[in-house]
Amino acid sequence: MSENVLRRIPLEKFVDLKVDYAFKQLFGNKKNKDLTIFFLNAILNRTGHRAIKEVSFMSQEFSGEHRDDKQSRLDILVKTQENIAINIEIQLSNQHDMIKRTLYYWSKIYTSELKKGFGYHKLRPTITINICNFSLFEQTDAYHTTFHLNEDDRKFRIDDVLEITL
Fold this sequence. Notes:
There is one protein chain. It contains four helices and eight strands. By secondary structure, it is an alpha/beta fold. Strands 1-4-5-6-8-7 form a six-stranded mixed sheet, sandwiched between helices. The protein has a two-stranded antiparallel ribbon with strand order 2-3.
């Protein structure tokens, strides 16, 4: 095939990026770190001095302290130059537990670095990005929503430690 013909064929004809394996190979691979950084800055709307400039790929395995604790495997977990952990999950089918699953993963990541003797001020922000192939909220038809810890009436943010983008 000529190069001009290939340019007109949509990428999804070759690979479906919604498939876990393909998504992880594209965005969770050290060889494609620049693409991962570009993707994160676009999704999180980070530009200028707030832009992510560097990431390191982290282990995606979470096991509990006890034999019966839940084992978890994240899709992609990176840490930025500012020591902010970002978890990227892709979910094709609605298991009707996405919010609880998201908060569970977020809490494991958020608390994982606090070691004995460390003060709570050492806890760093943790961001979760969920890419869902289904509608998660009846309240909105927006395809991109972001949540933080906010006070209910006056809507001020109490801290930047939690950010969930769906």
